[in-house]
C-alpha cells in the first residue's frame, strides 16, 4: 500500500482548472519529484494533500485512510507537513517561536523541547540564531527554518514546495544534502522543484505536470534522459 495515493484529483479556483484528473502515488521511503512549468498545478497538488485546498473531484488516501475532506490540522496530526513556497516563516517571531509553531498540534511539551534541540543539531545555524527574528535570517536560513518547522510535527510525509527558490547554488546544494539526509533517516518526501535536473538527481521517481495534467512519469534516472523532459524542462 502506498503511503500517499492521489486518484483522479481535480481542483478548481473559480473558473480556473488548476489540476485535472491527476493520479499519483508516493511509497513509504521514497523521494518523489513533481516538475512542470509555472502554473502547471504543482503547488495546488501539494495544497490538496495538506488539505489547504478543497478538491472538486477525486480521492486522496494517506496510510490507507481517506483524507480527501480532512481539516488541515488533522492532516498534520496524521503525519503530513508542508514547507510552503516562499518559506512563509513568521518574520517578526524568533527562530525558536517558529519551531514551536510547527509543533502546534502536539501535546508533549518535553518531547517538543527535545525535538527543538535536535533541530539545532541538524541545523546548527538555526541554533546559533535561535533568538533572532526569522525575518533577519538569510534566504537559505529561512528555507532551513521552514523545513525544520515542518519537521516539528514529526511528519511521515514531508511536502517541500520549491526549496531552492531564489537561493545561491552553494546553499541549494546544502538544502538538497539536508533533503537527502532526512530521507535516509526515514522521511518520505514529495518535492516540487523548478530546478528539475537537481530534483531528479535526488529523487527516486518523477511526475511531470503540464496545465494541470500528468504528462509523463517514471524513474528519475530514466526521465532525466528522456528527450521530452530534456527539451521542456532541462534546457536540452
Ligand atoms: P508555480 O510554479 O508558479 O507555483 P504551480 O505549478 O505550482 O506553479 P499552481 O500554483 O498550482 O501552479 O497554479 C495552478 C493554476 O491555478 C495557475 O493557473 C494559477 O494561476 C491558478 N491559481 C493558483 N492559485 C490560485 C488562487 N488562489 N486563485 C486563483 N487561481 C489560482
TrEMBL record:
Keyword check for Transport: yes
InterPro entries named in the record: AAA+_ATPase (IPR003593), ABC_branched_ATPase_LivF/BraG (IPR030660), ABC_transporter-like_ATP-bd (IPR003439), ABC_transporter-like_CS (IPR017871), BCAA_Transport_ATP-bd_LivF (IPR052156), P-loop_NTPase (IPR027417)
All residue ranges annotated as the ABC transporter domain in the record: 4-236
Example GO molecular function: ATP binding
Keyword Nucleotide-binding: yes
Keywords: Amino-acid transport, ATP-binding, Nucleotide-binding, Transport
PANTHER family: BRANCHED-CHAIN AMINO ACID TRANSPORT SYSTEM,ATP-BINDING PROTEIN (PTHR43820:SF3), HIGH-AFFINITY BRANCHED-CHAIN AMINO ACID TRANSPORT ATP-BINDING PROTEIN LIVF (PTHR43820)
Family: Belongs to the ABC transporter superfamily.
Name of the molecule in the record: ABC transporter ATP-binding protein
Species the sequence originates in: Deinococcus aetherius
Classification of source organism: Bacteria, Thermotogati, Deinococcota, Deinococci, Deinococcales
Amino acid at each position: 500500500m502506498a503511503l500517499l495515493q492521489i486518484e483522479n484529483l481535480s481542483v478548481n479556483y473559480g473558473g480556473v482548472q488548476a489540476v485535472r484528473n491527476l493520479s499519483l502515488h508516493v511509497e513509504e521511503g521514497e523521494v518523489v519529484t513533481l516538475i512542470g512549468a509555472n502554473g502547471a498545478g504543482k503547488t495546488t497538488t501539494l495544497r490538496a494533500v495538506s488539505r489547504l485546498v478543497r478538491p472538486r473531484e477525486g480521492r486522496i488516501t494517506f496510510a490507507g485512510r481517506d483524507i480527501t475532506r480532512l481539516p488541515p490540522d488533522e492532516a498534520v496530526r496524521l503525519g503530513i507537513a508542508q514547507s510552503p513556497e516562499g518559506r512563509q516563516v513568521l518574520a517578526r517571531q524568533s527562530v525558536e517561536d517558529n519551531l514551536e509553531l510547527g509543533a502546534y498540534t502536539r501535546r508533549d511539551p518535553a518531547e517538543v523541547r527535545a525535538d527543538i534541540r535536535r533541530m539545532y543539531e541538524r541545523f546548527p545555524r538555526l541554533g546559533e540564531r535561535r533568538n533572532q527574528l526569522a525575518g533577519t535570517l538569510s534566504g537559505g536560513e529561512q528555507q532551513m527554518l521552514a523545513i525544520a518547522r515542518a519537521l516539528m510535527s514529526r511528519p511521515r510525509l514531508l511536502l517541500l514546495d520549491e526549496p531552492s527558490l531564489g537561493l545561491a547554488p552553494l546553499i541549494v546544494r546544502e538544502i538538497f544534502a539536508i533533503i537527502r539526509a532526512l530521507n535516509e533517516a526515514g522521511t518520505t518526501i514529495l518535492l516540487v522543484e523548478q530546478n528539475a535536473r537537481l530534483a531528479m538527481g535526488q529523487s527516486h521517481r518523477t511526475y511531470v505536470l503540464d496545465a494541470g495534467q500528468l504528462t509523463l512519469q517514471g524513474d528519475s534516472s530514466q526521465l532525466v534522459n528522456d528527450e521530452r523532459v530534456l527539451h521542456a524542462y532541462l534546457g536540452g
